[in-house]
User: What shape does this take?
Amino acid sequence: MKTHNFYQKEEKELISINITPLIDIVFLLLVFFMLATSFIQKSTIEVNLSSEKTTEVDNKKNNVVLILNKKGLIYLNNKLINVSNIRNEISNIVKKNPKYSVLIKSHKKIPVQKVIRLIEEVRLAGTDDIKLVNLEK
Amino acid sequence: MALKKKIKQINLIPLINIIFLMLIFFMLAGTITKIDPHKINVPESIIKNDPLTPFLTIIVKKNGEIFIDSKNKKKELQKKNYLEILRARKPNEISLKIDSETPSEYFLKILKILENEKIKKVVIETNYRQQQ
Assistant: This one.
């Protein structure tokens, strides 16, 4: 008679889960996220739409005038200036006269990127009162 | 004598671990972006503001072509057309997606039109670039 022995070694079955489909899906997800994601940080700049007409803005005496000419040179109140110095210069002017507004005159062929840079420098100088007009020369 | 065959298996576990890590990284660090049919290279900015989801987007290409929303990709909207859309929708705020190389005359023209239409808020879409 055969008795059941608990201590008898049982044959062990190796159970293995097939992970290949899992790897396939993970690979697909990885490829999707690699292609579809972007690491560029989006931002925005708000532009003030003034109700004043260009001629009215021009005639105002309390304006800081920034000119961006055809060659990309920048003039602050008719003085040639480097883009990196704009912030300090305007900041000094605005601290003394907080009511001053900044008038940016850009040549019509100048790329938007350069105008945006000027707007940002003026904003960082501490004023939001910016008017944009075309340089007529 | 029969030769015992050794089954050589490549251990895939480290590979799977790395792939999982990469997947988690891309899922958390990146943002899924819409494919832009107009291929607008927006200007760079050094000020970081939160991007808005405005009611209406005006797209201005390098050559001055104007589109409203990205749905109208096939036809150029003439001034009259987009003015009609603006007047019909009456948005309070508008997002302006303009190519960085667009001549500023087009930019100012658009701003003038929006000003005349009494749009309260105009935001320009940019890519944030950290100042060096």
Notes: Chain A has a mean pLDDT of 82. The first helix of chain A runs from residue 20 to 36.
